[in-house]
Structure formats: structure tokens, C-alpha cells
Amino acid sequence: MDKSSLYEKRSYGTYNFPMEFFETKNSGGQVYINLHWHRNIEILLIHSGTCTVTVNKTDFSAVSGDIFIINQEELHRICSEDTELSYGAFIFPMASLEFSAEDDANKNIRRLIEGRRMFPEYISADDSIALILRDILDSVLDAETEKFSGYELFIKSQLIRFVSELVRHERLTEL
Fold first, then answer.
1. Which of 57, 100, 126, 142 would you call most buried, defined as having the most Cβ atoms within 10 angstroms of its Cβ?
2. pTM, two decimal places
């Protein structure tokens, strides 16, 4: 299979805020997001129900509370026939979290952008860090819905916090 044919050309967010966050509910009886890849980071937070999430060639049986982080250029898809399925999706370019100064904080972001570090693909709902990460992601979805003054800054800071929690708990993989 030619991976280039599975490239998703869709852009997310706006030029000034290239991030998109949304919730999906299975109201039609079947969810099937075709196998694809893009240059963005994609985080999936399973709110309820069950589905199969495929990342690269690994199938995961997802349940409520599970978190999936799809690294840049990784093939992935979602399949479910569970009418209770509801999940949040967070799609953004890793570079949008970068600082303008190359300080120690930015080095963690830079390694992810350059592919020298990778996010874990799967964080089980039972994992000790999952509750912290779910709270962060829920606050991002709330801010996206409310669009209060400065919500973009709040969202960006929460995504940086998400990354920092993964660094703090040593969940990133060095390549």
C-alpha cells in the first residue's frame, strides 16, 4: 500500500490558530474514519462507548477514559458500531506550541517537532497519569465551546501542560 495516497490534505483551524478540537458522537450506528495520516498531532479522548483505534499497524480496543496520541505522519483510523461511542479529537501542528526563544523549555517541544521524541500511542484509562490528562483535554474542549476572551492562549497553555505532564512522568520515547 502506498502511504502517500492516504495523506489527509484537510487543514485544521485557521491560519492564526491552526488547531481544531471537536467531539464526535455515534448517532448513525457506525463510525468509520478511514486509514489516513497527516503532519499534525492528533489526540483522541474516549468519553464513552467502545471502538477500535488503529495506530500504525496496531489495533487497540478502546474504552471510556482511554487516550490515544497519534504522532506526526502515523497511519491511523477509528472503527465502531457502538451507538454509545463519544470521543473528543484534538488536532494541531506540534510547531504551534513552540516558543520563540530556544530555551530549555522549548527543547522538549523541538525534539517532538523534529521526531527525535515520540508521544506514547496509548494511555489506558487506568493509567496513573490518565486522570490528569483527561482533565486537561476536557478543559480544552470547554474553552473551544465557550470561546471566552483569550481562549486561544488558554488552549495553547493547556496543550503545553499536556506535553509537560508527559515529560514529567517520563512517558515520551527518545529515538
1. 142
2. 0.94
